[in-house]
Structure formats: C-alpha cells, structure tokens
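Aim 2 progress update. The chain analyzed this quarter is reproduced below.
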Amino acid sequence: MKLVSSTPLLNEAREEGYGIVAFNIHTLEMLQAVVDAAEECRSPLILQSTVGTVKHLGADYIVSAAQSAAKNANIPIALHLDHCQDYDLIVKCMYAGYTSVMIDASMFPFEQNVEKTKKVVELAKILNVNVEAELGKVGGVEDDIVVSEEDALLADPKECEEFVEVTGVPTLAPAIGTAHGIYKGEPNIDFKRIDEISRRVKVPLVLHGGSGIPAEQVKHCISLGMAKVNVATELKNAFSQSLIQFFEENPTEFDPRKYMVPAKETVKKLAIEKIELAGSIGKAK
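Predicted structure tokens:
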C-alpha cells in the first residue's frame, strides 16, 4: 500500500464513532513499533511528526521510512505534520510526501487564521493532502510552541462553524480544555463545548493533548466527534524510560540493537493500549 490521505479515514471514524490515534514518532524504532501495533490490531494509523522532528531527521528521511512502512503493511497509514506555523515548511512536507498537515495559526486573530488556513487548503486539495487547523489555543508545550494556562483559550462553537465553512478545512482541532504534555492534575475538558461544536461542525474533530487523559474521558470525547486522538508525550516518555531502565540494568552494554529492542516493545505495548482505547481495532480496510 501507499501512504494515504487521512481525510477519508477520519471521516469514516467520525461517522462510525471511533477514533484513530496519531502517534508522534521521533526515531525509526518508534515508527516501527506503532506500525507493528496497528498491524496487530488491524487499525488505521496516523504517523505524526512535529516541526522539531522534521528539522532533526529531515522530511525526506521521515517520508521514506513511512512509505516503506506503508508498502509493507496491510493497513492504511497516513503521515501528518503537526503544529506547523511555517507555510514554506508545510509546502515542503506536502511535496516530500506527507499526506496530512496542520497549519496552526491559532495565535492570530480569526480573520488571519482563516486567511492562512485557506492558503494551505487550496494547495492541499490539488495534492490530495488532508489539512488540520486549530481554533482557540491548546495550552502546554509542543516543541517551540509554548502556551501558558493564562493564554489558553477555548474555541467558540459559532466561530468553529464559520471557520470550517469559509476555509473548507477537512479536520478541525478546537481548544476544549486539554493541554500538551502530561497533566499536573485532572484535565478540565469542556464536554458541553465539544458537543455544541460537534453539532455545528460535521468534519472530524481532533483531540490534542491526548497523553494522560483518563480513559473514560477520551472515550467520551470520541463519542462526541473527536475522530483523531493525538498521543505524543506519553509515547516519548515511555520510550525514554525504557532506555534509562536498560542502562541502569546493563551499564556496560552499548549495542543499539540490544537496548532498542525493549524500547520498541514498550512503545508497541502502549500503542496497542491507545488503539484499543480509541476503538479502532479491526477498522482497517
């Protein structure tokens, strides 16, 4: 198979009431682990990279690895660029082979967010690439994007409806009380707001800040139309903790082929748990 646009995958997920997990990957081993997990679960999969990871590894390397995974897999796989504010980098990634991109212009006034999003949507339609945009401001830290608790703003349902109508964006990430990173306390998710947005907006919604949200709250979000569930920090932490544990137990072992094995197994196990939570087991077609 080839990498596919996530638009039809997410449309189907929203219609049928399940979620597709988008895993942020930073290494080849993390990519392999989540692909193995999704294949074992027969689940559609979204591989996701941040701008920082693109700068670290290179768009062409990421695309090549993702294309190899898709070629050898029997499940649909999309490749998504997360939280990008740089139009030129979005264009570069689309032409490199990314099948989904996020234009994050949520820090701008509504009109400018519309303008910047429309510009990306116009090109993406030609290339059959999914586009995700954000309304409101999700708190926390995502690479170099830092939004304090004081600056985090919840999305306005009426603005969400207007935004989708005028931009034609096929997926929307509204700020609904989640945050990037690991929560210090209980997440304060505004489920009534999600419900109203979902009734006004028919495109798939995206749940940002999916790491550490209690399982029942994730399921509730999905039932209200959140078809894409982002998991980043939890996966990265599990990968890193596995490496730390390995070196604590094997301080003289320096072969990457040895210490990457338990790290991959840890990531795969967590990925399976997240896929099961999202309800996408057996949904690959």
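The chain has one domain: 6-278. Residues 6-278 form a domain with the TIM Barrel fold (CATH 3.20.20.70). These observations will guide the mutagenesis experiments scheduled for the next reporting period.
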